[in-house]
Amino acid sequence: MINHPAFIFIIGSLLIPLLRGKIKQIYILSLPILAFFVILQLPEGIPWTHKFMGYEISMRVDKLSLCFSYIFVIMAFLASLFAINVREDGQHVAAFIYAGSSLGVVFAGDLISLFIFWELMSISSIFLILYRKTKQAIAASFRYLLLHTFGGSCLLLGICIYLTQHPATFGQIGLNGIASILILIGFLLNAAAPPLHAWLPDAYPESTPSGGVFLSTYTTKTAVYTLIRAFPGVEILLWVGILMAIYGILFAILENDMRRILAYSIINQVGFMIAGIGIGTPLALNGSTAHAFCHILYKGLLWMSAGSVLFITGLSKCTELGGLYKSMPLTLCFCLIGAASISAFPLFSGFISKSMIISAAAEEHLTLAWLLLQMASAGVFLHAGIKFPYFVFFAKEKGVKARDPPLNMLIAMGLTAFLCVFFGVFPGVLYNILPYNVEYVPYTPDHVISTLQLLLFSALAFFILLPYLQRKDTITLDVDWFYRKAAPYFLWFCEKPLQDFATFLDRESRRIGRAFLWFSSNPLNAIRIMKSMLHLMLVDTDNEIEVKIKLEKYKLKHLKEHEYIGISVGILAIIIILVLYLLTIIL
Q1: Mean pLDDT of 379-393
Q2: Who contacts 445 (Cβ-Cβ below 8 Å, separation ≥6)?
Q3: Do 223 and 264 belong together in one domain?
Q4: What is the pLDDT of residue 52?
Q5: Domain assignment of residue 65, given as a range
Q6: Which residues in 259-362 belong to E strands, given as ranges?
């Protein structure tokens, strides 16, 4: 367990509050580097196992887990460099526990350790939202916690049911019963699949400027990893992915907040990955893995540029920004590289990964899926490739005073931008670490020309429709509107009708209990009293007051005149239980 890279982050993060100044900064940057070298030394297979409550806990290392671990650690270094000047130690601790638990998920060889790291990942990520310290951030983090608690509960229940019939090994599960359905729901919630997606555009934009970079890296991509591992080739994932790809575009186009645009863009991009998982061929699974790798880089770069704007100006809405190309030229350059990468321009990383998924759909003759993925690909350039940079940097100047961010942020963006270009120019470096052998060639004349035509068409459509795309200070309503509206009514139901019903049950149960005690203390006299009461109610009903007086007299008379036969409550309960037991045996 010592050589597990997850614990380098998790345990190492606990020492951060004890350090100060430059030593702390060097220490923070050294942890990802150390973890990377540990990963390079890991032998493929099962480095260690451990018995826990009759189950085998293990660490698994293969090409799939290694590919995800490489990019997770690389991004941990780049995001830490971006956040190195953050003063709150808690942010650094939460970010490293978050990164470490994500690595724990990637190397989990069993469902038990996977769930533990999964929940630790959810809990630690909340603090990257809370440290924004605004009312909106606190409310968003609470909703984030509620939804991830639901997803974690589904995952736990599914694992518990699954373990009754299968070993704890985490591998291909497939869709074959209630356990697999619950596990799939738990994974899809973290992947932000509609209608379980609203937590992402709700919470991520409320995070700290540097926290958003970490958040964009881990949660949804660990979900992609688990889906590749457990549900490859499950057809429903193809259509879930296509729905996500289109859904994310539509809401990103409508959105006014720049970080909410990027949040919906995550849903769009993860949709491509999940669609590839649904196709399930080696080319498609390689494409999903490669696209997750590239997406972490260019989406992290876009969140860094947006975080830089937020850090410098304190503003996030497109209606409040514009004309920043003059005052933030370096941030603009890095943003444009991220925009070109996410739009799949040739020579940028998105081009060599997204096309693998679309080509896999074409090879499997999934014509409708191929067409929808092509449309979604064109839409990416429309919202993330043009809209985000245009309205933030090129739209009409609003008089916002700005400058490029501090040097550490610029270096982090510069290194990330370099990697976006590097993998776009040298795709073989990435292809060599993918889980399956790659025979795909992205740079064919037909592919390059068709991609450029699609991108130019999207650009033309944007500028033709620009008068209709001008941003207004509006709030976009998503499916979370339904549960936000329903929540006050649910609370009212719990506080009023449900509480009144509980009070009624409590009152009546007490009355029944008192009647049972009265009857069991002297059953024979109780029967005589009830007989007399029934006689009076049926025969002498003319005068209600006289009836009540006579009833009280009959009670006293029978209690005094007749022999007291005491039967304890315990004995009576035992007799009733024995009778019921005998009935069950007979029947």
Answers
A1: 84
A2: none
A3: no
A4: 75
A5: 1-231
A6: none
Same domain, 162 and 239: no
Residues 223, 352 within the same domain: no
Q: Is residue 581 exposed (0-12), middle (13-18) or buried (19+ Cβ within 10 Å)?
A: exposed
- The rounded Cα 64 to chain-centroid distance in angstroms is 21
DSSP line for 387-439: IHHIIIIIS-----------HHHHHHHHHHHHHHHHHHH-HHHHHTTSSS---
Q: Is 111 left (phi over 0), alpha (psi -120 to 50) or beta?
A: alpha
C-beta separation of 95 from 128 below 8 A: yes
**CA–CA separation, 179 and 162 (whole Å):** 5
Nearest partner of 400 among 318, 297, 508, judged by Cα:
318
**In this structure, is residue 546 part of a structural domain?**
no
Q: Which of 210, 221, 203 is nearest to 68 (CA)?
A: 221
What is the per-residue pLDDT across 162-172, written as a single tens digit (0 to 9) for each?
999 989 999 99
Residue 502 tokens, joined: 């509980």
Confidence (pTM): 0.84
- Asked whether the predicted pLDDT for residue 563 surpasses 60, the reply is no
**Pairing outcome for strands 45-52 and 55-61:** antiparallel
Q: Tell me the average pLDDT of the chain.
A: 87
Task: Select from 349, 340, 197, 358 the least CA-distant residue to 276.
Answer: 358
Q: In whole angstroms, give the CA distance from residue 199 to residue 302.
A: 20
pLDDT at 567 over 50: no
Write phi, then psi, for 458 (nearest 5 degrees).
Answer: -65, -45
For residue 314, give the nearest of 400, 255, 214 by alpha carbon.
Answer: 400
Per-residue pLDDT tens over the stretch 400-447:
888 999 999 999 999 999 999 999 999 999 999 999 998 889 999 988
Backbone angles phi, psi at 372, to 5 degrees: -65, -35
